[in-house]
Amino acid sequence: MEILMCVAVGILFAVAVFLILSRSLLRIVLGMSILTHGVHLLLITMSRLKTGAPPLLGEQAESYVDPLPQALILTSIVINFGLTAFFFVLSYRSYLKLKTDDMEEVRGRPYE
Amino acid sequence: MNNLVVLPILLPLITGVIAILFFRKVSIQRFVSVVGLLLTAAASTVLIVQVAQSGIQTLNMGGWTPPYGIVLVADMVSALLVVAASIIALACLLYAFRSVNKEREEHHFYPFFHFLIAGVNGSFLTGDIFNLFVSFELMLISSYALIVLGGTERQLQETIKYVLINIVSSALFVASIGFLYSITGTLNMADLSVRIAEIGQSGVVTLIAVLFLIVFSIKAGLFLFFWLSGSYAAPPAVVTALFAGLLTKVGLYAIVRTFTLIFYHDPDFFHALIGWMAGATMILGVIGAISYRDVNKILIYNVIAGVGFVAFGMASASRTALEGLLFYMLHDMLIKTLLFLLGGALIAVAGTSKLDNMGGLIKRYPMLGWMFFISALALAGIPPFSGFPGKLLLFEGGLQTGLYGLTGIAVLSSLLMLYSVLRIFIQAFWGEPPAGVVRRPYPVNGLLIPAGILFIFIIVMGVGAEGMFQLTSRAGDILLHPNLYIDAVLKE
């Protein structure tokens, strides 16, 4: 199971890198979003995907899954959610101001 | 257990929240900010006295013993850095009163400022690797807001790059934490160090350590500094000064902490790697510094070269070098902020950042001129000032460990750093004012008083190096013997 997940994470990372290296700003934001998905899947995979009850003591099970990575991912998800929202608004503002979403054009533009 | 350890993080957070409430009333925001920062500075001073008297202070959050809970640790290294951060924050805040326009002040400049300080202090004081990530993010998100606040075209362009590079490096950081957790099963730094020592330096550990090095190098601008020169030139001078003093140093602190506490089992490989990166950073930094004719760019490339010096201390990692590293890092934080504050004042009085359009300013602004001159000498490491003792120890440590080439590069780049900054001085202050430009006198004293705070520390640190050295040598102890840290955190 871990191997399958690792391959999936690898594919997500590859897609993310490809998108981040493209010219359109929106594709870059999407790439960043996919990268964080990959990272979160990686975190859950790295804690071993053994079978067990959800980490709720009410389940009264023999064994539970590791609760720590879930807390880490939850933290990381909200941080990245905030970042993505900020990045989207930033892209919108820069589109309004610079009138382009092509990063090559943005780079070639002289200041002021 | 010492509740004081949390105050340098908690006080800026509370101050920031209160400042949000009064977002239309700038005078109240300013008052609250000054009071909050003074309390923070007082708390960190008391903290460093306690650390000096009774050793490493720890605080188990929520009463959970480590490694199960989050622990905050104030040893001599972090306590010194927190004090330096408070001083820098205070100087920048007073400078901001005079230089930031009302529109920015009304749009939450001060709350972001305080959240940035909270993130920086949190990164210095935390004893948990995931908490380090969260503190990094707190600091970075505030820095995104500060860098784009104002929304000029240039700020928008540069913020896109800055945000993207930091999101990618943060994603890598989380991935590295995942890998580290999979082999050790813990996140507490002291406990990680114990577990890694049990596992021994296998290939996987080396790989993860290199990943961490890449992540922190992007944050610190160590060799991977391609993003830094554009981003730091975009925001107002006081924001750049704050970034130059604090942000890259947090990345450096993370490198120093992880490679002296956790990944210290394979020194040959890592010290060689960091040594190469340090050499390249120093060379490329000074090349940038002497090739531009723009005040901001010259100072920014000096920041990069300074990062190389700290990494050079990591590369030799002898006792002398580690003591020198901390001394130099404190000096570097203060001097870089000071130079950007003075540079900002210089740009304000000259009305341009281009050196070719300046000249003859010493007649009208003698105070600014001589402060800039002395700061340039301190930057290069001329004896009576603060740059000298740190660099001397770094060079001595480099020679002791046989890194002759790297020490040579460091000496040479010190000279070129001096050349690059003195060129600003000569071009801007000597000679005749450029013809055809008539400028009204600028009330520069309001900007020089906050810079004066840092200026005094630059002189005191240089003259009173003996007293400072007692503190930095104890910090060197901790960097050299990770067991001191581990015992303090995991004691029962």
UniProtKB/TrEMBL annotation, chain A:
Keywords: Cell membrane, Membrane, Transmembrane, Transmembrane helix. The keyword Lipid metabolism does not apply. Its main location: membrane. It is a multi-pass membrane protein. It is found in: Cell membrane. The chain crosses the membrane at residues 6-22, 29-49, 69-90. Pfam families: Oxidored_q2. GO terms for cellular component: plasma membrane. Belongs to the CPA3 antiporters (TC 2.A.63) subunit C family. This is Multicomponent Na+:H+ antiporter subunit C. It comes from Paenibacillus amylolyticus.
From TrEMBL, chain B:
The chain crosses the membrane at residues 6-24, 31-52, 72-97, 109-126, 132-151, 163-184, 204-228, 240-263, 269-292, 299-321, 333-353, 365-383, 403-426, 447-465. Its main location: membrane. One of its GO terms (biological process) is ATP synthesis coupled electron transport. It is found in: Cell membrane; Membrane. Keywords: Antiport, Cell membrane, Membrane, Transmembrane, Transmembrane helix, Transport. Residues 128-416 form the NADH:quinone oxidoreductase/Mrp antiporter transmembrane domain. The keyword DNA repair does not apply. InterPro entries: CPA3_Na-H_Antiporter_D, NADH_UbQ_OxRdtase, ND/Mrp_TM. GO terms for molecular function: antiporter activity; NADH dehydrogenase (ubiquinone) activity. One of its GO terms (cellular component) is plasma membrane. It is a multi-pass membrane protein. Belongs to the CPA3 antiporters (TC 2.A.63) subunit D family. This is Multicomponent Na+:H+ antiporter subunit D.
